[in-house]
Design goal:
- The protein has two domains: about 120 residues, Rossmann fold (3-Layer(aba) Sandwich); about 110 residues, Rossmann fold.
- The chain has twelve helices and ten strands.
- The longest helix is centred in the middle third of the chain and has 18 residues.
Length: about 240
């Protein structure tokens, strides 16, 4: 079986399911595992797939995602290849993703073991706190994670009440709007915009009564198996005061 992954987090999941020899193509953003990033053929970016390279590989299965990939490109691939398109917004969706990919790739036993491991990790992270928070993913313009995102599910898991949970996707916001919300926490993601300490200092000056901190974007937005690797970090975030 020849498999192409068009999403970084799902590439890592394929690795954790033991599909080293089956995966023949990944994107330029598939940095985990590093050995695959160095050795596997790269078929473009998540939003700009190299269809010519994909056709050359002639895959048996392409694993894509509704949010990460471009609809037109995925639909064009569906004409010629088997394509599985995930849509992961909740932890339940994530468990289903692991089971589905395990079935598609004939790694059922491995997927059940990985799913159970993930459930234990989730249980160890869970916090019942409800701290009012916003999660910034971009700076100019300011953009936050809305309620129909996997980030929102991870915020819930770590005890943050997403003040933008009633909005869709990743809405733009203003400083003035954020100032009116009496936030307890402002979370600055390390990706896709690489927020740094200088940004923490900038926002902390604007929001003196709010705790501003940078968070690992992979830990909060990568579905699949990344949570297992990041559970110690996420427990720390869940228990931060």
């Amino acid at each position: 079986m020849k498999i192409i992954s068009t999403v970084p987090s799902q590439t890592e999941l394929l690795f954790d399911l033991g599909l080293e020899s089956q995966v023949c193509g990944i994107t330029k953003f598939c940095v985990h595992p590093e050995s695959w990033y160095k050795s596997k053929l790269r078929i473009g970016g998540t939003k700009n797939l190299n269809l010519k390279k994909i056709r050359t590989l002639n895959p048996d299965l392409i694993i894509a995602n509704k949010e990460e990939n471009t609809k037109e490109q995925i639909e064009s691939l569906m004409i010629h290849y088997q394509v599985y398109v995930s849509d992961v917004k909740t932890l339940a969706d994530n468990f289903e993703l692991i089971e589905k990919i395990g079935t598609l790739t004939n790694r059922i036993i491995e997927s059940v073991q990985l799913r159970n491991k993930l459930k234990k990790a989730v249980t160890s992270i869970y916090s019942d706190q409800k701290r009012k928070a916003a999660y910034l993913i971009w700076k100019d313009p300011l953009m936050v994670a809305g309620g129909d995102t996997f980030i929102n599910a991870m915020m819930d898991l770590c005890g943050f009440d997403n003040i933008f949970r009633s909005t869709m996707r990743y809405p733009e916001v203003t400083i003035e709007e954020l100032q009116s919300l009496s936030l307890e926490y402002l979370l600055l993601s390390s990706e896709p915009f690489p927020f740094k300490q200088k940004h923490v200092d900038y926002f902390q000056n604007i929001f003196p009564k709010t705790k501003v901190l940078t968070v690992d974007g992979e830990a909060f937005s990568w579905y699949g198996s990344r949570i297992i690797k990041k559970q110690s970090y996420l427990r720390g975030i869940a228990n931060i005061t």
